[in-house]
Each structure stands twice: as structure tokens, then as C-alpha cells.
Amino acid sequence: MPVTTTTASRLLTAARRRAGLMVRSRIAGDDAAEQRQRIWHSEGDRWNSPGDAIYAVHGDASMFAAGLTALLLQSLHPLAMAGVADHSDYRGDPWGRLQRTSQFIATTTFGTISDATDLIRAINGMHRSVVGVDHRGRPYDARDPHLLRWVHVAEIWSFLECHRLYGRAPLTPGRQDEYVRQASRTGIMLGARSVPTTVAELAAALEEYRPELEASPAALDARHFLLDEPPVGWTARPAYAMLREGAVAALPAWARGSLGLPDGPFGSRNAALLLGRAGVSTLRWVLDAVEG
């Protein structure tokens, strides 16, 4: 092999690894390596195992788009969004919020039962103080099982849909049901009731909430922040733009309409899906160099 080719290969490998470490640090924090060691390698029983559907979904790079899809969809419930706007520091510390969410998903999916239950117990405790009124003066309480069910339904629907669109290996219908059932445990433990356990039940639950949904001022503000003023540097903007297009394309058409979002570049959802796949594939490629 020519020396120039070998040198170029080494430089590419080094650049890929640097990019992977930067992404991992942004998503999981500066102590990402220590967190990974604790979550994945601590001794103790676990709810899930590597062959489970929930491993396939939550461990895939499609989650980068899915998280954004879930936030946009969840924002359409005015009471749930009011709680986020009033009690969350997502504008002041967006990366910190993302890291806490990433840690929660990783711990409850891959971590020990002891660590997962401790984290869920802590979150349930924090929810006691998340009360208030929305923009129409309607009261909300983060412990409301109906609102907790909405947050769970919107999240799991988004994760599964983005995996279907951008995942490394799509799940069979039976495995999709397995995922919904396995993911239901966390929703129930957080206080939701009548949590879906099949894809059909998940779709029905999403449809059930539609009369309650609207693009409140807080939802539109979140949309503007997430899509138009993302907390990323200029060098990361192109990659984020691809993920943004993919995340929006994954939303139900009625949700895009409520938020005033186009189907994609020049009105083409197919173009947005292609960009989403490219963005997820790029992130998967750089992360494989770190975690491979």
C-alpha cells in the first residue's frame, strides 16, 4: 500500500474517532466513558438482554433523530408542554438536559435493575414540584397519569418510527410489539396507566390524544429553538440540519401541520427522509469508531 494512502487512512481514522468522541461527550457528558462502564458493566440483574428488541431500538443511532421527533410531538400537548416550559432549563442548559435524558434511557434500558429503579424513584420525587397552569389557565401536575401516558406514548411512538425509517436493521412486526411491551415497564413505573403493549395499541393511544393537542405558544417557542436556533456550533450545523429534516419527516402529517412545518425541502418528504438517513448513517459511522 502506498505511504500516502496509509497516511490518509490514519488521518481519516483519527478524525473519525475525534468526531465520535465529541458526539459522545455532547450526548452523554464529559464522563461518558465512566458512565458507559457503570451502566453496561456493573454487576447485577437487568430487565433487558442484548437480544431484546429494546436493545436494538435504544442502542441504534436512529435515536439521535428520534429524540428530536419525540420532543416536537410531546410539545403538542399544552399541559405537558407548560410543565416543560415552566420547570425545565432546556433553553439555558440544552446539552445538560439532553445528557440527563440520555442517561435515563441508557440506565433503564441497559443498566442494572437497582440503578434503574433508583433513578425512576428520584424522577418521581422531582415530579411532585412540577405543577402550575398552562397558557389558558388550566392546571397541570406532572404526576397526572394521563399526562405521563401522553409523554410515554409520544416518546415510544417516535423512537419506533425513527428506527423503522433510519435504523440499521428494521424490526419485524412481532419484534415491534416486543419493543412496545418492553418499553411499557418504564412508563408504568413513572406513573402512567393503560400503557400500550402492542404497536396497534400504541397507534390507537396516539390517535386518542389528538383532540387534546394544539400548537400552544410554548410549543411554537420550543419548535423555533429546536429547529431554527439549535444549540450547536457552525461546524455541526450541516449534520444537525440533516437530523432535523429526518426528525420532522418522521412526525405524523397532522403534527407537522399543527407546528407549521413543511414536509421537507421544497415540500418533499422523500428528500427529508434521504437527509435523515444520511445524517443518522454519518453519526453511526463516527460513533462506531469509538464504541464499535
Automatic annotation (TrEMBL):
Residues 56-281 form the ER-bound oxygenase mpaB/mpaB'/Rubber oxygenase catalytic domain. It comes from Dietzia natronolimnaea. It holds the Pfam family MPAB_Lcp_cat. Signal peptide: none annotated. PANTHER family: BLR2777 PROTEIN, ER-BOUND OXYGENASE MPAB_MPAB'_RUBBER OXYGENASE CATALYTIC DOMAIN-CONTAINING PROTEIN. InterPro entries: MPAB/Lcp_cat_dom. GO terms for molecular function: oxidoreductase activity. The lineage of its organism: Bacteria, Bacillati, Actinomycetota, Actinomycetes, Mycobacteriales. This is DUF2236 domain-containing protein.
